[in-house]
Amino acid sequence: MEILIAVVILLGIFEFTNRLSYRYFKNKTLKERKWDLNICCGKTDGGGINADIFKHESVPNFLYVSDIYNLPFEDGQFEHVLCSHTLEHVEDPELFYNELKRVGKHVILLLPPLWDITAVLNFFEHRWIFLCSRTRYDYLPKYIELPFSRQIQKKRGQTISA
Q: 68 pLDDT exceeds 70?
């Protein structure tokens, strides 16, 4: 019985840290300002152009983007760019980050920190572990490949791919 209680408590902690990392800090950042470009927006509205590789018809001012490494925007077109919880999924984080820096003057990244265990060890969706303790960055933090993720995703497919 004690083991079951410990497991339930641990799962509750994992769920809390994931919600804190993903939902709370993302919503807080979204409300800070109008984001000229909210790239890989999911179902969130940044106030400017909301772009993603998946079609989200319910998001205002939505633009479908087929290639995140070659965005259909001019150099420096956007003052403020937000990219939330995306780099851990992509094939090449540095290439994508450089593309964000090309189109945006101020780029903010939201990443799963190491204390968000459910995100850090998500072998089915993520490819990278970012070696960071915060969620928000204005630069690309160091990262390492998530062990076994490519093999698992090759067999089962990646739930989210970019």
A: yes
Query: How many residues are present in the chain?
Result: 162
pLDDT attached to residue 13? 73
Question: What gap in Å lies between CA 41 and CA 23, rounded to an integer?
Answer: 13
Q: What is the 3-state secondary structure (H, E, C) of the chain?
A: CHHHHHHHHHHHHHHHHHHHHHHHHHHHHHHHCCEEEEECCCCCCCEEEEEECCCCCCCCCEEECCCCCCCCCCCCCEEEEEEECCCCCCCCHHHHHHHHHHHEEEEEEECCCCCCHHHHCCCCCCCEEECCCCCEECCCCCEEECCCHHHHHHHHCCCCCC
Domains and CATH numbers, the chain: 2-156 (3.40.50)
Exposure string over 59-82, b if 16+ CB within 10 A, otherwise e: beebeebeebeebebeeebbebbb
pTM of the predicted protein model: 0.85
The Cα–Cα gap between 138 and 6 comes to: 38
